[in-house]
Amino acid sequence: MLNESPTHSRIVNQLRHLAESSARVRVVVMELILSEGEAAVEPLCWALKETAYHLRAAAAEALQRIGAPAVESVCRILSEGDSDARRRAAQTLGEIGDLRAVEALCRAAQEEYEAVSRSEAQASGRREGESVARESGVPVRRAIIGALGRLGDARALPLLLRALRDKNDWVQKDAVEGLSRLGAPALDSLVSALQDPDYRVRLGAVTALGKLGDEKAVAPLLALFEDPNDYVREAVVDALGVLGDMRAVDLLLRAMQDSDPILRDHAAAALAQVGEGDRIARKLIGARELTAQEKIALWEKLAALLYTTETWRLPYLMPDLRAYSEQLRNDTEEAVREGARAMLQVLDGEVLLRASSRNAGRERAELMRPAAGEGRPAAPEQLVRPIADPPPAQGEKNPNRRRFRWPFHR
User: Fold this and answer.
1) Domain count of the chain?
2) Domain-located, residue 358
3) Which distant-in-sequence residues (6+ apart) come within 8 Å of 111 by Cβ?
């Protein structure tokens, strides 16, 4: 126990005022404690371990305000205090944000999971008679994993991956948040976790990859769409929507035709995240990972999209393909310019059969047939090919564009 020096007694009394007084008094008392500087750290750490719970909260708040000078002392509480003190110490270190705390937090997390393993072994009867060491439960694990996630240091990766397999949903959620903050160092491990037999681990890995925002995650996520678990499939669709990569558009369109209405709703929301109208069109033209033929095929699918009850959140219309490609030939972005020119080359060499142009094509075919009685045979049906409608003149509405209607207007 800390010797009760005048500074110690004064700070403990101030903590009582900090915990029990009005907001105005609290501000004054906090300034008095902070004016003690580093001399206040040890009394506050003592209070974090030894006093009543309401005083511990006040001590944790003061230690957070002191910041870096308190890190080493607070780290010691992770191995000395009871479960409530360790939880508050981990939260305090996460709020301070000093990387010197990473190693101490990793050791504390390792001890917690070793205690969990011993507890599970004892419960299963495989190692009967062994006393279970300090198993603090969910609050401490969640505080430690949350602090490691906020610090965002790669040294915490093994512990965050272990927490991804935690049986508690809240701990796993904190692990997902932490892994998404690590960035590139966590990518390969998360991709490997997509093959885990536990669907909860796959679900967490998918969510983390979506938040990670790395385009390298697109291909593994596309491959996971056939996962047998519905929750995982929905998470894959959500993650692809967050990433906004054009390679996912074809899969999202397929998901919108799935028999599961919940998955269709997720797919509609994900597709809406990719973009609206001109934005998704420009993004599609500038996508270097797709060929011109693939872009045109996706464009046709998007243009023919039916606005059903599951797609009500897609209030965009694709612009005319040729006219928009012509417009982007001189775009400021090189990828967009290259994509527009490549698409125009394909359009010049092929005849696109739009659903909206079939009737007009049949009318032209009839006009090409010789009139009856002219003495010439009619042209064979298979040689008569409909052609695409020309783009509308500037300022004229495109008759082939589908008009968006809300579901309740049907």
Assistant:
1) 1
2) yes
3) 79, 134
